[in-house]
């Protein structure tokens, strides 16, 4: 609890950027679908999948998916905060070897979908600190389907230029959950 208070205080100091906090994503009803689809929203997918089980079906060697992800990354206004190639703008970089909550598919899918406040409220901890410490808004409502979010994540994987062993979460930092 003390730690959370401390983190909240920090976040007030570093606003990133001002007024861009998206409204909390409403809890979606549970659905039980398996493969990525054109009808399941990111919130539905995350809500209906046990923690640790969300897995990107795409590899970042798939150029068509990476290109599609790049467009979605811009369209969902991720680039406004993170820079056009995820290298960091006024918000933390996505392409370096530092992962705030973990670099695995499951954690990143949930962070992007629910936002950082919800993650923190569910017991996730900031294990890695970037140059900017601020809340990540819930973006699940701005991305049409879980498939779109996997494409965005594939694009992010393709931009990665940190140490190879940290691509999906640094072992030493407890990443790769
Ligand atoms: C309003 C600014 C803003 C927008 C828009 C935004 N983000 Fe973020 N993002 C952040 C902040 C701030 C953090 C750090 C969160 C923290 O420290 O808790 C973050 C963290 C992340 C991380 C984890 C980075 C790490 O090093 O662990 C990923 C991945 C990410 N965002 C992806 C996205 C994607 C994809 C989108 C678009 C769908 C997006 N973000 C839109 C502000 C934003």
Structure at a glance:
With 177 residues, the chain is an all-alpha fold.
Would you kindly provide a written description of the structure presented here, covering whatever features stand out?
There is one protein chain. The chain is mainly alpha-helical and 177 residues long. The protein has a domain at 56-169: Cytochrome Bc1 Complex, Chain D, domain 2 (Orthogonal Bundle). Helix content is 38%, strand content 0%. The chain contains seven helices and no strands. The protein has helices spanning 2-13, 42-48, 63-75, 78-82, 105-114, 116-121, 146-159. The chain is globular and about 35 Å long. The two termini are 23 Å apart. Residues 1-16 and 18-33 have low confidence and may be disordered. The chain binds heme C. Residues 16-17, 20, 76-78, 80-82, 91-92, 94, 98-100, 108, 111-112, 116, 126, 130, 133-137, 139, 143, 152, 156 line the site of heme C.
Bound molecules: heme C
- The backbone outline, from C-alpha atoms, is globular
Radius of gyration using CA atoms only: 15 Å
Query: What is the average per-residue confidence, as pLDDT, rounded to a whole number?
Result: 81
- The CATH topology of the domain at 56-169 is Cytochrome Bc1 Complex, Chain D, domain 2
Number of helices: 7
Give the C-level CATH assignment of the domain at 56-169.
Mainly Alpha
**Care to count the β-strands?**
0
Name the helix and strand elements from N-terminus to C-terminus, one letter apiece. HHHHHHH
Cα distance spanning the termini: 23 Å
- Overall SS class: mainly alpha
């Amino acid at each position: 609890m003390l730690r959370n208070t401390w983190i909240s205080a920090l976040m007030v100091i570093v606003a990133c950027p001002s007024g861009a906090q998206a409204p909390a994503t409403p809890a979606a009803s549970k659905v039980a679908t398996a493969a990525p689809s054109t009808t399941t929203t990111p919130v539905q997918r995350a809500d209906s999948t046990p923690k640790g089980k969300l897995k990107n079906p795409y590899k970042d060697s798939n150029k068509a998916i990476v290109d599609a992800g790049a467009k979605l990354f811009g369209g969902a206004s991720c680039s406004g905060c993170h820079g056009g190639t995820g290298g960091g703008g006024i918000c933390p970089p996505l392409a370096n070897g530092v992962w705030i909550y973990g670099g695995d598919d499951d954690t990143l899918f949930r962070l992007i979908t629910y936002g950082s406040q919800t993650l923190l409220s569910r017991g996730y901890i900031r294990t890695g600190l970037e140059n900017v410490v601020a809340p990540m808004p819930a973006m699940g409502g701005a991305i049409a389907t879980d498939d779109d979010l996997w494409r965005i994540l594939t694009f992010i994987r393709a931009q990665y230029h940190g140490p190879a062993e940290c691509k999906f979460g640094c072992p030493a930092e407890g990443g790769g959950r």
